């Protein structure tokens, strides 16, 4: 483990203090000399006077300004041998010298040596010098680290990462699936490289471009591509880095950032997660004068204030454009808003081709099939998908990624990790009937997405899964398709009711019922697909987690609310009755499929469709969809 200078200083400080006091307390003048001239024998002062009266004292050496004496004594108690004994003398004993002279005792005084003063001086200066030196080292290291903890005078300096020629390793060819956004930014790059072609016709350079889209769709990747293509100075910073504990620091950092940008114009400033500083202003408890609002006000002024910033393009990214301040979004600040949405089929195909460049793919793997199986996946999801497939390939010690690893990776990304296979029991058979119920309804209904596979292998919280694959991206969904999805979701519960009876139905359909209720309610309240009429009674963006829709009352009366509940119940009851009839009519093929599913644990969609068309009413499926 590598320790920093700061950590070493903090850990060593207690030991330095202890050592300092030991230095002061132990290294007294002449201490070593006393220790060299004395044995372990000691004598009290009273005993010393008795020896003096008896004439047994032969010599006295005084140390430490007369406080300590080393005496040479001879007597019967000492074995009639001369021994050196240490005696601590009192501070005030003037008669002692007189007695020693009368007794004609050899007296010698040893004054303190000059090195004691030197040791005292070193001891007194050692700790302060060491402490000051440690502080100097810490401040020097902090000054070499921009934005470090020791820079008390540099709070207002911008923390933006500056690159004169941004070598991000990403260009527009590395960005796929967002062609419209790429076109917008290619125009910005051209403006920076060849401004004369635009200014000749009176066009002005845009001051700001706002990237809006869900997480993982490639907003930051686009900014890296712009930096790599433009070959102009590039500043990158996160919105949260403007805001500090002290009021005014964020505004100072904004001023410093734009000052540096003006010195290097034309240039690009990229602010990631701008919603951290660009949130809507309000009065609040402090009257709207808090640190974040001052920072936002300064940013608004720098982008389009009294003094223009010619040649500076601000690119910002956020996935919460609904909470940004209106003054920030107006033309003149962010002139363009580019939506980077979840890619469609062609976009996913292009993204997969980019991420498959450095992957060893088996010849049988179809990138288009993977793209069709991944509706709703963002660019980050697709990159993670192929990475999971590569990891699984290495774990299985294969040389190339096959369709088996891709399927397993899709299942893992969507549903979670694979669990322990179920044992052959009543519970496994019940789950098999539940999943086959979903699959048979999805196969028989014309407006339902085709079945991709049915499996009894647990993943995440699900004990079994039925996968459907859409034929195409559906931005518009018909009433028939919604009802088909409701019936497909009810297929599992209906199979449990028909096969095992109402007393044996389980909690396995809880998530299915939530989806059914949500779809039916949206048909009534948002899409106008009920007897109430073409009315939109609930808003789509009433999400309290985005700061909207909290404590907001409904826009309809209690009578309409009762009618809404009645319509939702009627839609679900009608679909439920039709599904029960379909399960009852196709009980034979359901039993065949359950036995096969328990044996193999997974049935793919093609085999399922072949079995259903052989045994049941697929040619007559209009019988079940005529009411849709």
Automatic annotation (TrEMBL):
Its cofactor is Zn(2+). InterPro entries: AAA+_ATPase, AAA_lid_3, ATPase_AAA_core, ATPase_AAA_CS, FtsH, P-loop_NTPase, Pept_M41_FtsH_extracell, Peptidase_M41. The active site is at 435. The keyword Transmembrane helix applies. PANTHER family: ATP-DEPENDENT ZINC METALLOPROTEASE FTSH 2, CHLOROPLASTIC (PTHR23076:SF139), METALLOPROTEASE M41 FTSH (PTHR23076). It is a multi-pass membrane protein. The chain crosses the membrane at residues 7-26, 117-139. GO terms for cellular component: chloroplast thylakoid membrane. Homohexamer. Belongs to the AAA ATPase family. The keyword Hydrolase applies. Keywords: ATP-binding, Cell cycle, Cell division, Chloroplast, Hydrolase, Membrane, Metal-binding, Metalloprotease, Nucleotide-binding, Plastid, Protease, Thylakoid, Transmembrane, Transmembrane helix, Zinc. Its EC number is 3.4.24.-. Zn(2+) binds at residues 434, 438, 512. Pfam families: AAA (PF00004), AAA_lid_3 (PF17862), FtsH_ext (PF06480), Peptidase_M41 (PF01434). It comes from the Eukaryota. Binds 1 zinc ion per subunit. GO terms for biological process: cell division; proteolysis; PSII associated light-harvesting complex II catabolic process. GO terms for molecular function: ATP binding; ATP hydrolysis activity; ATP-dependent peptidase activity; metalloendopeptidase activity; zinc ion binding. Residues 205-344 form the AAA+ ATPase domain. Its main location: membrane. ATP binds at residues 213-220. Acts as a processive, ATP-dependent zinc metallopeptidase. It is found in: Membrane; Plastid, Chloroplast thylakoid membrane. It comes from Liagoropsis maxima. This is ATP-dependent zinc metalloprotease FtsH.
């Amino acid at each position: 483990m590598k320790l920093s200078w700061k950590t070493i200083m903090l850990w060593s400080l207690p030991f330095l203090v202890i050592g300092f006091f030991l230095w002061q307390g132990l290294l007294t003048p002449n201490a070593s000399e006393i220790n060299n001239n004395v044995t372990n024998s000691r004598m009290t002062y009273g005993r010393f006077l008795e020896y003096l009266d008896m004439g047994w004292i032969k010599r006295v050496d005084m140390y430490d300004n007369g406080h300590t004496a080393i005496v040479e004594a001879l007597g019967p108690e000492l074995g009639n041998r001369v021994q050196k004994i240490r005696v601590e003398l009192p501070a005030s004993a003037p008669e002692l010298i007189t007695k020693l002279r009368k007794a004609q005792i050899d007296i010698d005084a040893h004054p303190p040596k000059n090195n004691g003063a030197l040791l005292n001086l070193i001891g007194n200066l050692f700790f302060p010098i060491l402490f000051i030196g440690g502080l100097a080292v810490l401040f020097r290291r902090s000054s070499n680290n921009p934005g470090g903890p020791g820079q008390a005078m540099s709070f207002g300096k911008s923390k933006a990462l500056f690159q004169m020629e941004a070598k991000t390793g990403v260009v527009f060819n590395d960005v796929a699936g967002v062609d419209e956004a790429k076109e917008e930014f290619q125009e910005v790059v051209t403006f920076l490289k060849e401004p004369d072609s635009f200014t000749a016709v009176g066009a002005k350079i845009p001051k700001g471009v706002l990237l809006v889209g869900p997480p993982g769709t490639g907003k930051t990747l686009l900014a890296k591509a712009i930096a790599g293509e433009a070959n102009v100075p590039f500043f990158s910073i996160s919105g949260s880095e403007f805001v500090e504990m002290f009021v005014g620091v964020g505004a100072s950092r904004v001023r410093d950032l734009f000052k540096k940008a003006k010195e290097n114009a034309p240039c690009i400033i990229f602010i990631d997660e701008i919603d951290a500083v660009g949130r809507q202003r309000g009065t609040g408890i402090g009257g709207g004068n808090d640190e974040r609002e001052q920072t936002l006000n300064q940013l608004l002024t720098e982008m389009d204030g009294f003094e223009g910033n010619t040649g500076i393009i601000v690119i910002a990214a956020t996935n919460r454009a609904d909470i940004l301040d209106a003054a920030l979004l107006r033309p003149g600040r962010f002139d363009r808003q580019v939506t980077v949405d979840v890619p469609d089929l062609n976009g996913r195909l292009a993204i997969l081709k980019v991420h498959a460049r450095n992957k060893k793919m088996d010849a049988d793997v179809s990138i288009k099939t993977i793209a069709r199986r991944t509706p709703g996946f963002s660019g980050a999801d697709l990159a993670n998908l192929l990475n999971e497939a590569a990891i699984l390939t290495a774990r299985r010690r294969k040389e190339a990624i096959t369709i088996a690893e891709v399927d397993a990776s899709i299942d893992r990304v969507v549903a979670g990790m694979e669990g322990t296979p179920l044992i052959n029991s009543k519970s496994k058979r019940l789950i098999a009937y539940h999943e086959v119920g979903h699959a048979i309804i999805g196969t028989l209904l014309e407006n339902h997405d085709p079945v991709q596979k049915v499996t009894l292998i647990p993943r995440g919280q699900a004990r079994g899964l039925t996968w459907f694959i859409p034929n195409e991206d559906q931005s518009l969904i018909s009433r028939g398709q919604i009802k088909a999805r409701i019936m497909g979701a009810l297929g599992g519960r209906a199979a449990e009711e028909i096969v095992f009876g109402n007393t044996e139905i389980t909690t396995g359909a809880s998530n299915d019922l939530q989806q059914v209720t949500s779809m039916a309610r949206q048909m009534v309240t948002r899409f106008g697909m009920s007897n109430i009429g073409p009315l939109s009674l609930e808003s789509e963006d009433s999400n309290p987690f985005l700061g909207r829709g909290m404590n907001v009352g409904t826009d309809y009366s209690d009578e309409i609310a009762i009618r809404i509940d009645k319509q939702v119940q009627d839609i679900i009851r009608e679909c439920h009755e039709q599904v029960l009839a379909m399960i009852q009519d196709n009980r034979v093929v359901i039993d065949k499929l359950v036995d096969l599913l328990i044996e193999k644990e997974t049935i793919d969609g093609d085999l399922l469709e072949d079995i259903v068309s052989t045994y049941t009413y697929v040619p007559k499926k209009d019988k079940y969809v005529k009411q849709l």
